[in-house]
Every structure is written in structure tokens, then in C-alpha cells.
């Protein structure tokens, strides 16, 4: 099995599916001839032609709307929004349209569309290239929201998303495009090549949407995480000698509630971890679900470890980022009693 | 406000700025005033070849394509030269829209549904376009293009079932009345969020082009909603990708209570938006069914020849209120609709047919009578399945279906909770 970084794995998913299905078209800003600012679509236009892989105007609302129209026609559009921070001009088309067309037409039409977008901080992207907007999308009826944490899952989830009959938003943690990141920004970067999760099968396979993975089995505490934070959770648990069970959610809607319940019932303790701002973040939903469904198994209150409710600051990125310095003490606190 | 400082004292010698907020030329109590409306003579506008460069159409964006003159004669190069049967069919469809609207407006007043929107005075916009398009072409309408469905023979009972949200409503009571959807009739689901369908129409057309299909798309938007970003996105994408789409702007001059000047309509024409985007544009008398037909056909032929999109402004007038929830006497002179100088689209087409010797008042009265019977019969049939006020669509399982293709656990749980709450679980 070839080792791939996440970019190569996502590129491969496009390639595998475009070869299988002539109805797949790819559009987005700079994604055609150039192959995307992160290179996820590199080589696709040359291989599949300009009518299947093409640059779009800088109009995210137009990109999403055009993709909806193509989906209504019968194509399977895969749209790239260059940064998740730019997705908001397309918000109305996603929220009011894509997510509701199946419902409001009683199933006569649906929008089999994928929107991919790099998200999250840790690359000195400042306020407008670092945000984590997943909670907005989790709040939308009719939209599935997927967040992979490694190359293997990224390819399998993207293929599953392309095959899904409903609109799927995939947020790709750009900090780990090229290698896993434990949250210690001062340590040398490790590439994916040496990581078993970078072993990406050739050809077609799927990772099911709505299924979490146990990234690390443990007994002491459950950490619920996704994207970059899975790696931060794993490293922080090991660094602190804590036998944590790390659940990589992989999909936040629909959520794998069974995996969450099974883990929390076993450990009796739960820390919810995300990079997004805290208030009304997806962690609030997770914490509520855990207390609703596992209250009598809990030994301690659920703790949220998150970004702060500020815009993502440029020079103080590492003060903002919920890294080991924030997660470590939270783990100790939840284990105290 | 910050205090002036020595540094900005130079500003004090400059005139004070003031904000311009456009106002219509008449409000309630004022006499109706359409004197500022320039109406070129019928037959005057030249008709470019469908393969003409877009720029050749741009002078037409400031004029008005008109075919029917004041005497009901079809004149000039835009005369589509339709046979009498087609003309009678268009007259019948427009009249049916009007009869249907009247009946459903009354049904709302009788408490049988929550909401209705008439197309009074705008019937030609949708009906003539539907006849000019191919049956397989895909329509992305607003809420005032019920004429598309009627012209495509969508059953009246289906329309009423939707209006009543009754047990026969194929949309299962999920949509506000008149927000129809029917795939088999090429009529895309209406959204209450204005303008969203416009760039979707462009995307559909791009899909048709990507697949080498021969079908085109047509979208409609109101004058008010052209101010939405979706309008800009639609026209940009349509132009950039030379999408096979007709982009109609129905300028009925009122967006609820806001006159078209609030959308920039008194600065230039809506058709002139085409100039800035470099696509073909036409400004058309929307109350002239023959002009609407001819312009739509011109744009359809152009799109089908891979020559790209056309923006068509249909200049018309919203004769009555925005909807059953609106009273236009609160913001414009009473009876403004009756004074509209471009007349009534049904009366004009009728006059034309009579002039041709293909119609007469007796036949028209008989048509109205027959359509009234047809609509009342459909209403009786629909009401057997209930109305919103009495026996509306009600099924908890259905309420949770179609959010996704499959029902995820959280919706299944919520459905079960709803059933328990209702005592039907």
C-alpha cells in the first residue's frame, strides 16, 4: 500500500471516482489548470478535461448554487471552497437550498453534492484562513458534515461522500494535510510517510459516513475529537501517562452515538475537544448528548476544551490553539475525583 | 460623533452630504402618474440575428420589444407569426391562470388555506414563455409563474392539493401554498428565499452543456430580488461559461411595498444589467404575449445554438397586492394597476385574435364560463382530500422523511418522541 499524505489521498479519491463515474464534475477557485492552492485537484483537469474540472469565479455563493443546479440536472458535483473561512457567501445556498431540496420536493429532487473545504488553524493563516465553522453546518437539517483526521480516512470518506445521495460538507484539517500534528508547534514536523494511517489502499474503498473510529483504546477517560484534534488528544494522553480512549468522530452529522455511549459508559469520564470557538460549538452538543444519555455512568462533569470565543489571532495563534497545555490539565481535572 | 479637530477643519468648508433614498412618484392619495414611462411604438425594435454578438442586443436593453400595437395588430420584425390555434391556446392558458387565481384567492379568504399569490396582469410572462420553450426545457420559477404549470397542462387538482396542504398534496404539507414543484413538468421547486433559483438555473444549464444535452434552462426573478447576490452570481456564471439559459427579470415594479427604484430600477433598466456582464439582453413589453413569446424564442434558439445566455426584462405591472397578506393601498395610489399604460395582457391578445377574425366576444365569454366550470370542478375534487383549514396533510412519519435519503438515528428518535407527544406512537 502506498503511503500518501492527505492531499495525495484526497486527490486519489477524486481520480478513482472520476474514472468510475463520468457524471462527477469538479469546480472551485484555482482548482483547474493550477490544481488548487493546496494541490488537492492537481492533474485532474489534464486527465479529465476542462468540462469536468474547471476554475470558478470568486463567488462561493455562485459555486454552491451552480453545483446545486448541476446536481439537480443529474451530475455529481464536487466543489472546493478554497478556505472554510470563505464558505459564508455560500451559506444561504447550503442552508436554505441544498439541505432542503429533498424535503421540500418530497424526494422528487435531491442534491448529491460534495463541498470540500480546508479548515482549522495552525498554519499562521490569521483570522480568515484558520477558522473551524463546522458547528454551523451541524445545525443544518439535511446536510452531512464530515471531518477526516488522516489520509486513509480522507480518501475513503471523500469517496463515500461522492456516492452519498445527499449533500455532504467535508472539512479538511489543513494543518495535517502534510503530516500528523500533536499540538507541539515547537517540535519538528513529522510527515505522514512514517504513519500507518497514511497507508492508503489503491483504487476504490469507502469509509462509511456516520461511523466513528477508536483512535486509541483506553479505560480512564473518553476524549471526543475530530480532525487535527485527534492527534493532539493522542499525544497529550501519552505525554501525561493517561490511559485515554480517543474517539475520532470522523462525521459530526450523522453522529456515531453508539460509539460515544459505549466509550463513555466504559470510562465514566469525558472530555470534548475542538478547535472551534467555544460558545455553541459542536462540543456543546456532544456534552449535552453525553449527559442526556450517559449521566448515571459519569464520574465527573464533562469538560469542553476548545478555542476561545475570539477571532483567530495571527501572531498569537498558539495561545489560541487548544493544544496540550489546555487539554493536559483538563484531563487531569476530569480524572481528579 | 467625533469632535472636529484642527486637522480636519478643511472639511468644514465642504457641503454637507445627504443620503438619497428613492421614492416613487405617487403615494396613496396622489393621482396615478405613469407619465414618466416611455413606451416605444410596437414594431419599432429591430430584431438581431440569434447569432449576433451580445453587444448588438444592448441598444434593445433601453427600448422595448413590442409586437401588438394599440389596435391589436401584430407588427414589426419580432412578430412570431403564430397560427390561430397557438394564439387561442395561449389566450386560454392566460385566462385559466386568471380564473384559477381568482378562485384560490377567494379560497384563502374563506380560510381554506393560509396564503395565495395572484399573477393578475402578469399572465403573459409565464404562459407565453412556456409556449416558446420546449416542453423538456427546465424552468426555475419564482412564485408568480403558475402560468408555466398551467401552460404545461399540470393538473389543477394537483395545484390545489398543494395550496390546501391536504392529503393529496404531493409535497406532503411541507411547503407554503403555491410553492409548487413538479419534475415531470420541468418546474423546479419554488423557494421562499428570493433569487436562490436563479444561479441554480445556470448550474442546471451548465450541467446540460457538460453532458452535451440539447435542453436549456430558464430562470425567473423579480425586479426586487435582482438586488440579491444570487443575481450577480447567476449572470456572472452564465456569462463566463456561456450557459444555455434564459434569465428572465419580471419587472412588475413592486417588491411588496418597495418600488423598483429601491432595487436600482430608476437608475437604468433591469435589462441593462446584461450590458455590464457582456451577455445578450432584451427589454420586452411583458403584457404583450407575442413579444414575450418572440423574445423567449429568440433567446432559446440562441442558447440552443451554444451562443450563451440572454437576460430578458419583462416590463409589466403588479396589478394587485403582493399576496393575500398585502394591501397595496397602504403604499401606492388606489387603482394604479388599472391605469397601467401597457394594458391588460389577456385583453390585448383577445383583441388581436378578434382582429384576425379568429375569436369573438361570445366565444370569449363561453371560454371564461367553461374555465370557471373546470376550476370549480377541480376545487370540488381537491377539497375531497381536505383543506388546510379542515383536514390538512398530517402524518408524523412523513414529517421526518426526506430530510436525508435514509433516516439517521437522531431523526428517528425525534420522530418517536413526536409520536409519543401526539399520542400516536
Structure commentary:
- Chain A has helices at residues 6-20, 44-48, 60-73, 91-98, 101-104, 134-138, 151-163, 228-239, 257-267, 282-294, 317-320, 324-335, and strands at residues 24-28, 53-55, 76-80, 114-119, 144-146, 168-173, 213-216, 221-225, 244-248, 251-253, 270-273, 303-305.
- Chain A is an alpha/beta fold.
- Chain A has 2 domains: 6-198, Thiamin diphosphate (ThDP)-binding fold, Pyr/PP domains (Rossmann fold, 3-Layer(aba) Sandwich); 213-335, Rossmann fold, CATH 3.40.50.920.
- Chain A has a 7-stranded mixed beta sheet with strand order 2-1-3-4-6-5-10, with helices on both faces. In chain A, strands 7-9-8-11-12 form a 5-stranded mixed beta sheet, sandwiched between helices.
- In chain A, helix 8 links the parallel strand 8 (221-225) and strand 9 (244-248).
- In chain A, helix 1 runs parallel beside helix 7 (151-163), helix 3 packs parallel to helix 4 and helix 9 (257-267) packs across helix 10.
- The radius of gyration of chain A is 19 Å and the shape is globular.
- The mean pLDDT of chain A is 97.
- By secondary structure, chain B is an alpha/beta fold.
- Chain B has 2 domains: 54-383, Rossmann fold (3-Layer(aba) Sandwich), CATH 3.40.50; 395-425, no CATH class.
- Chain B has 13 helices and 7 strands.
- In chain B, helix 7 (229-240) links the parallel strand 2 and strand 3.
- The radius of gyration of chain B is 24 Å and the shape is globular.
- The N and C termini of chain B lie far apart (62 Å).
- At the A-B interface, helix 3, helix 4 and helix 5 of A face helix 6 and helix 7 of B.
Q: What's the rounded overall pLDDT mean of chain A?
A: 97
- What structural class is derived from the secondary structure elements of chain B? alpha/beta
Largest sheet geometry of chain B: 5 strands, parallel
The greatest interface here is: A-B, 46 and 46 residues
For the secondary structure, the number of strands of chain B is 7
CATH superfamily membership of the largest domain in chain B: Thiamin diphosphate (ThDP)-binding fold, Pyr/PP domains
Oligomer: heterodimer
CATH class of the largest domain in chain A: Alpha Beta
Amino acid at each position: 500500500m502506498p503511503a500518501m499524505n492527505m492531499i495525495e489521498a484526497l486527490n486519489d479519491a477524486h481520480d478513482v471516482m472520476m474514472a468510475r463515474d463520468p457524471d462527477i464534475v469538479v469546480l472551485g477557485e484555482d482548482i483547474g489548470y493550477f490544481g488548487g492552492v493546496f494541490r488537492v485537484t492537481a492533474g485532474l483537469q489534464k486527465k479529465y478535461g476542462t468540462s469536468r474540472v474547471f476554475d470558478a469565479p470568486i463567488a462561493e455563493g455562485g459555486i454552491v448554487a451552480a453545483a446545486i443546479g448541476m446536481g439537480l440536472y443529474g451530475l455529481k458535483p464536487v466543489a472546493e471552497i478554497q478556505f472554510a473561512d470563505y464558505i459564508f457567501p455560500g451559506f444561504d445556498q447550503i442552508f436554505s437550498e441544498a439541505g432542503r431540496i429533498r424535503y421540500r420536493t418530497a424526494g422528487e429532487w435531491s442534491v448529491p453534492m460534495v463541498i470540500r473545504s480546508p479548515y482549522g488553524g495552525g498554519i499562521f493563516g490569521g483570522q480568515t484562513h484558520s477558522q473551524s465553522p463546522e458547528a454551523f453546518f451541524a445545525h443544518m437539517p439535511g446536510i452531512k458534515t464530515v471531518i477526516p483526521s488522516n489520509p486513509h480516512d480522507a480518501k475513503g470518506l471523500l469517496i463515500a461522500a461522492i456516492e452519498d445521495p445527499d449533500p455532504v460538507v467535508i472539512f479538511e484539517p489543513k494543518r495535517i494535510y502534510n503530516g500528523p500534528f500533536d499540538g507541539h508547534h515547537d517540535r519538528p514536523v513529522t510527515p505522514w510517510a512514517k504513519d500507518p494511517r497514511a497507508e492508503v489502499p489503491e483504487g476504490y474503498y469507502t469509509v462509511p459516513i456516520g461511523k466513528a473510529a477508536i483512535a486509541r483504546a483506553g479505560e480512564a477517560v473518553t476524549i471526543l475529537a475530530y480532525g487535527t484534534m485527534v492527534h493532539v488528544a493522542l499525544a497529550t494522553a501519552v505525554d501525561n501517562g493517561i490511559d485515554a480512549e480517543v474517539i475520532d468522530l470522523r462525521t459530526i452529522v450523522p453522529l456515531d452515538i453508539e460509539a460515544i455511549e459505549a466509550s463513555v459508559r466504559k470510562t465514566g469520564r469525558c472530555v470534548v475537544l475542538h478547535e472551534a470557538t467555544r460558545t455553541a460549538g459542536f462540543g456543546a452538543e456532544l456534552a449535552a448528548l453525553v449527559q442526556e444519555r450517559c449521566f448515571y455512568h459519569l464520574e465527573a462533569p464533562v469538560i469542553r476544551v476548545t478555542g476561545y470565543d475570539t477571532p483567530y489571532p495571527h501572531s498569537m495563534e498558539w495561545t489560541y490553539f487548544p493544544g496540550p497545555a489546555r487539554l493536559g490539565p483538563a484531563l487531569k481535572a476530569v480524572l481528579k475525583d | 460623533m467625533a469632535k472636529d479637530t484642527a486637522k480636519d477643519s478643511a472639511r468644514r468648508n465642504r457641503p454637507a452630504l445627504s443620503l438619497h433614498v428613492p421614492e416613487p412618484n405617487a403615494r396613496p392619495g396622489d393621482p396615478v402618474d405613469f407619465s414618466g414611462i416611455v413606451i416605444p411604438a410596437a414594431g419599432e425594435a429591430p430584431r438581431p440575428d440569434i447569432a449576433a454578438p451580445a453587444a448588438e442586443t444592448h441598444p434593445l436593453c433601453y427600448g422595448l420589444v413590442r409586437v401588438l400595437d394599440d389596435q391589436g395588430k401584430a407588427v414589426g420584425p419580432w412578430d412570431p407569426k403564430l397560427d390561430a390555434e397557438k394564439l387561442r391556446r395561449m389566450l386560454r392558458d392566460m385566462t385559466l391562470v386568471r380564473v384559477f387565481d381568482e378562485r384560490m384567492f377567494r379560497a384563502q379568504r374563506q380560510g381554506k388555506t393560509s396564503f395565495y399569490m395572484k399573477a393578475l396582469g402578469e399572465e403573459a410572462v409565464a404562459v407565453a414563455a412556456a409556449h416558446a420553450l420546449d416542453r423538456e426545457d427546465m424552468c426555475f420559477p419564482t412564485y408568480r409563474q403558475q402560468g408555466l404549470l398551467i401552460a404545461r397542462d399540470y393538473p389543477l387538482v394537483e395545484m390545489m392539493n398543494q395550496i390546501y396542504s391536504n392529503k393529496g398534496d404531493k409535497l406532503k404539507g411541507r411547503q407554503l401554498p403555491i410553492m409548487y414543484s413538479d419534475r415531470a413538468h420541468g418546474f423546479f421547486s419554488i423557494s421562499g428565499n428570493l433569487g436562490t433559483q436563479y444561479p441554480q438555473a445556470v448550474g442546471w444549464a451548465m450541467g446540460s452543456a457538460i453532458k452535451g444535452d440539447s435542453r436549456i434552462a430558464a430562470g425567473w426573478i423579480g425586479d426586487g430580488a435582482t438586488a440579491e447576490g444570487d443575481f450577480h452570481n447567476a449572470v456572472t456564471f452564465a456569462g463566463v461559461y456561456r450557459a444555455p439559459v434564459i434569465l428572465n427579470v419580471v419587472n412588475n415594479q413592486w417588491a411588496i411595498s418597495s418600488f423598483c427604484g429601491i432595487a436600482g430600477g430608476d437608475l437604468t433598466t433591469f435589462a441593462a444589467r446584461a450590458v455590464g456582464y457582456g451577455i445578450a439582453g432584451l427589454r420586452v413589453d411583458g403584457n404583450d404575449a407575442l413579444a414575450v413569446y418572440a423574445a423567449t424564442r429568440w433567446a432559446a434558439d440562441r442558447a440552443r445554438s451554444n451562443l450563451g445566455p440572454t437576460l430578458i426584462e419583462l416590463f409589466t405591472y403588479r396589478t394587485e397586492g403582493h399576496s393575500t397578506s398585502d394591501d397595496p393601498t397602504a403604499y401606492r395610489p388606489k387603482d394604479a394597476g388599472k391605469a397601467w399604460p401597457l394594458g391588460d395582457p389577456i385583453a390585448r391578445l383577445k383583441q388581436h385574435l378578434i382582429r384576425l377574425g379568429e375569436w369573438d366576444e361570445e366565444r370569449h365569454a363561453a371560454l371564461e364560463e367553461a374555465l370557471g366550470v373546470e376550476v370549480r370542478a377541480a376545487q370540488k375534487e381537491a377539497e375531497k382530500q381536505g383543506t388546510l383549514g379542515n383536514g390538512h396533510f398530517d402524518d408524523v412519519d412523513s414529517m421526518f422523511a426526506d430530510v436525508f435519503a435514509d433516516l439517521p438515528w437522531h431523526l428517528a428518535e425525534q420522530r418517536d418522541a413526536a409520536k409519543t407527544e401526539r399520542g400516536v406512537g
